[in-house]
Amino acid sequence: MHASKGDRLVQHGRVVGQHDQVTEVVEVIGEEGEPPYRVRFEDGHEAIMSPGPDCQVRHHEDEAS
């Protein structure tokens, strides 16, 4: 998984009725775009995250198009 600052990580819900969780990458801590990432949640709090297989990267450039 590769992400850069400004990309969004979408963590898909694991059970029926659980919504996807969207976070914004504010810092890439790993080398060459690799995890872990410092992310900001929609409510404003930040955390360090190493996304699993239920996560998808939405690149900033793709969303701008």
Automatic annotation (TrEMBL):
SUPFAM superfamilies xrefs: Cell growth inhibitor/plasmid maintenance toxic component (SSF50118)
Domain DUF1918 intervals: 1-57
Biased composition (Basic and acidic residues): 56-65
Entry superkingdom: Bacteria
Gene3D superfamilies: Domain of unknown function DUF1918 (2.30.30.440)
Region (Disordered): 46-65
Name of the protein this chain belongs to: DUF1918 domain-containing protein
Organism: Streptomyces seoulensis
Taxonomic lineage of the native organism: Bacteria, Bacillati, Actinomycetota, Actinomycetes, Kitasatosporales
